[in-house]
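Why does this matter for the project? Reviewers at the last site visit asked to see concrete outputs rather than summary tables. In response, this paragraph embeds two records directly. Each consists of the residue sequence and, immediately after it, the corresponding structure tokens. Nothing has been edited or filtered.
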Amino acid sequence: MLNKYPAWKNILILIVVILGFLYSLPNLYPDDPALQISHELTELSEGDMPVITSALEAAEVYFFGEEIETESIRIRLNNLDDQLRAKTAIEDALGESYIVALNLAPTTPSWLQAIGAGKMNLGLDLQGGVHFLMEVDMDAAIIRRMEDNLSNVRTILREQRIRSRGLNLISNSHLEVRFANAEDRSQARSELVTIFPELQMQNRETEGVFILDMRMLPATALQIQTDTLQANRTTLLNRVDTLGVSEPTVQQQGSDRIVVELPGMQDPAQAIRILQRIATLEIHLESELGASSLSYETYDYEGIPVNVDNNVVLQGDRISNAVYQLDQNSQPSVVLSLDAQGGNQMNRATRDNVGRRMDILLIETKSRTITSINEDGEEIENIEFYEEKELIMHATIQQALGRQFSITGLTPREASDLAPLIRSGSLAAPMTIVEQSVIGPSMGQENLDQGLLGVQVAAGLVVLFMLFYYRTFGMAANAALIMNILMIVAVMSSIIPATLTLPGIVGIVLTVGMAVDANVLIFTRIREELSEGAPAQKAIDAGYNRAFTTIIDANLTTFLVAAVLYTIGTGPVRGFAITLMIGIITSMFTAIVGTRAIVNLIYGGKSGKTLSIGSYRMKAKQDDLNIAVGSK
């Protein structure tokens, strides 16, 4: 029968509408301003609450909820002013070793949370927070790789018993090895050429010294830069994820920069400490007796001074994973897994040094605030970064090691802290903050209010136009439009969690217009069929069927453009693209399937029914019934 959906299809559409409503519903529940309190080394418990409560009482700040989680405490407050005052009071009471982060606590009812319904994540421009532009030191990444190569060359020459007159790092991409004669150089080159395919080798002589130049190929340097940027991006993303910030953004910008945005955070100094709390490992050997005083550094290990050879056996960027577990003696340990090249380096270094001590250094990049007076006599604060090294393992090599080995001798707390710190914190190259800005919560709320007002005005104008111009059919299009907005919100909230930004709201506004564009094509086609004398039922069916191809083509091309924008764009461009892509998909469903279902319920299979579609308000012909019957 023309224009009649089977019952199962109507039920399916109804289920989709109900799910769209349910999964968009949490956005009606505003979040409570909150503080999340944690400690750099220890877990918090109820025993920490009296100090927090006393600090809030002294500051005359009222809080109405507390949530004690595994490693932190979260308290709920009434407004943003109380949140900022409470943060200052708690920081003063607890000290610098505690992390007090601004946060938002959801108020979504538990029954909605049980079905996985949540709120849309708001971007920096709608919620406020901090923005950083961080630059990766690419030269340091290449130097680190060349230093790694230098260490490997030294080991290989020692293994093959090839005598050299010294290894020198000439520049960040140039390594030279000196020999007493051409035969040693030739033998060394034949050994090294297969192991270091990324290095270009060339012979030269000067003042009776035979030199083998090893230069990094430009393609290799470019690949190192690409890998370094991606590795640092992953490190930063893992680091800020542990903070509890709602939907942080860590994106590549250009060839050597990374943008970090932390929505809801208002303290740049705190954010810097979190971003720079990066750790990595270096593996060395204990300095041999009689070595030059310049070849080692002395570290304290359990009260005993240990001379650690400056030659690095393995850099931290060769560590692919770190897992905390108990060893065969039920003692805490951290199991390190190395990549293929790292495993080879470790094997070569340890098989020739069985019985010698191996030292593992934990290197943390930290920051401190330096106060100085400028030329105008004003006091200014600058952030200074520094490295802190700690000897965490000093053990005898019992046998040659491979791609996996354990760090032992740690306390349970040290082991459980070290594993995630190494796993998420190994930087392939140093980074500096070249730009930072703060967007206050009030400005973010103003952007959100204005953006929502824009959506409401746009939707209102479209609803009035469609109702005035297409009458009953316009009412069906408006119902589909409302359903479309609910589905966009539902998809972005729970089904495909995405961050809503101000450009994203612009994408929704554009989608509001595009959502009825398909209906305009359909309704125009119906009016054309009616003007040519087609029966009402046949005109409706032809309107939807013949406009379908045009609708698909128009929306598909727009979707492809949005996909390209999302792929190559950053920040605001991606925010616009994601909402546009989601809106196109949902509008295709609501405009074609949704309005067809409503029109079918009103006109489907009914003869002699007057169509209300603007100026073409006509009574169906008598043969409508015959058409409907004949189509069975």
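We now turn to the second protein, recorded in exactly the same manner.
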Amino acid sequence: MQSKRYVLCGNASAKGVSEDPAHDLRLRLSGKEGKGNITLRIEDVHRKMFQPVPTRFNDLLEVATYVYSADQVIRRGADDVDSFGDGWRRDLHFVVPVRDPDFWNRSQVQEALCSTLGFLSDDQYRFDFVKLDQDHPFQDYLGFDDTQQMYRKPEQVVMFSGGLDSLAGTIDEVLNQKRRVVLVTHKATSKLNKRYQTLEQLLAEKADGNAPPRISVRVHKTKDLNHEYTQRSRSFLYVSIGATIAKMLGLNSVRFYENGVISLNLPVCAQVVGGRATRTTHPRVMKGFQDIVSLVAGESFTVENPYIWKTKADVVKVITDAGCQDLIKHSMTCTHTWEMTNQHTHCGGCSQCIDRRFAVLAANADQHDPVEHYKFDVFTQSRDAQDKKKNVEKVMAAAYLERANQVKNLADVTQFVSSYPDVGRVFRFLSSDTGQAAQRVFDLYKRHANEVMGALDDLLSRHSKGIRERTLPGDCLLRTAYESGSTISMSSVVSVEKHPENFFRLRGGGWEARFQGRDWVRILGVDKGAEYINLLLAHPERETSVYEIVCGHALGFGGSANSGLEHDDIEEGFQVTTGAPLSDAGVVVDRKALAQYQARFQLLTTEKAEAEEDGDHQRVEEIDVEMAQIFEAITGGTAKGGKLRKAGDKRKNVRDAFRNAVNRAIKQIEKYDKPLAAHLKASIKHGNEVVYRPETSITWDVRPIVNT
């Protein structure tokens, strides 16, 4: 993580807050003709439509503008994989003047803001809200256009980006359901103005008197403030604008339209992890937005995504089934808008472009999405292997295909959850029944995988001659898919190894460590303890259940499939305590049973997080018992001497054996690096929850080195 950056907003004082004035960022927001370095404008507003804006919504809009602007000003680390771990995540401390600081400093509001934004952009946030000394009337942000006539009162606010998903949602609302909606657009660049106008005009022609009015919002910054392109916090600004417009209209909801595969956004490859995989409409983010706006409104406010169970091909079919296929070519999907030209409206290589190409093929609508609009044809063109950015995109396209291929071959939801354990984190935000949510997510990804593979088969058939005669480039996606049968043969991003000051990592088949820039040491014969230490160092200050770590490692999450504590290790701990009895576990656990245990473990992890959040300590206790039972079952059913094992509550033994494994590893380290051993002894705290908590913050590189 980067060092802390203070963002001082408006006229907020730096006294008693700033640690390094030369390192601070000062942002000032102005309305019509202000002198700030940020200008917020809400355009095309009709005076007769709106009710007065509550004070807290005025604050919300300004807070979101400051967050979005800081996101663009403060650079992340370099794009290369070596450095993104430390440099990607930022530590941002905002000091924001507001009209109602008592409200904004409430713990509930702070928690909703920081947790939602932290997950959304993969950064760390802190806010200090102070009293605004000079008010800015909301009218200053409005640009009225009373030439447009408002026929009827709108029923819904729809967030309209101009992409295929929001276009389909608008068509669904206006043409299929005949609803009166207002579209809200955030204009990130003037390059898109003409395309928005074209879509607006075509929608009006098809709407038969129900043309949706569109309100556009732009945030203009001085040139010296445009540095960072990722803009992960954009959707917070977007929803704040939409919610404010809805409140002005007397409505209590906004709708995003985004297909579920993009919303859930399982990482397709190592280059797209954490905040690099966009979380704009992730269910956790949507729930966070809803909580924030409801607190601001003082009443229930809904932020929803009606397309959460649709694939992008489903979305395209909504457009074509409504007879609006001629609008597809005018829609805007590409994330690299800065590369856009009149001739090439899409780059062709980003994840959104790849997904779009497969979707229109799967929906039999590719004739309405001209390939010449793409700067690069990911299917048939070659990439320059010396261009790191293009090489990353090539790997990403191949990994996208491989994930679809893997999901297509999965038999059931158990295998899906075992193969993609990250998906378990989303279930609680989709349904009160985690089993039902898991099945629906699996069905969604399975359908998407079949669509992608079907589109690929169609492409291979179309280009069979070029593939057979090898007139297509050897590294284009179609030849790679046809000839290799796997993305494993795809070249990885080549990078020169760097040696950070502190690392504790797996290299090949062994462990190595370095502390405070000294010579690094090899750690031999204590692999289990080293794995546990590695996990703790990866998540400083995070208190984690010992049972989750041990059971997770035994199931193959976060370590090798054979890691974890053996039964003999547990029996060396203290006497087994009494607890809920288990039936005999048996001697052998087959693959099907292991997969079932993996799926159950994922669901238990999600349920435990919910129980902890709800303060349900009894349920937490029950889950810990079941985790210990799962571990008991997967590590064998027989005791020493072949006696049939009947397991009791193994939790205390697991805790003690975990501590023993860690201590053995530290004792081994002490032979070669006493300061590191002393640091680990002092910083790792044991109990039901184990945590690495150093006195001073230390950044550790814990990623494995696999290419040795």
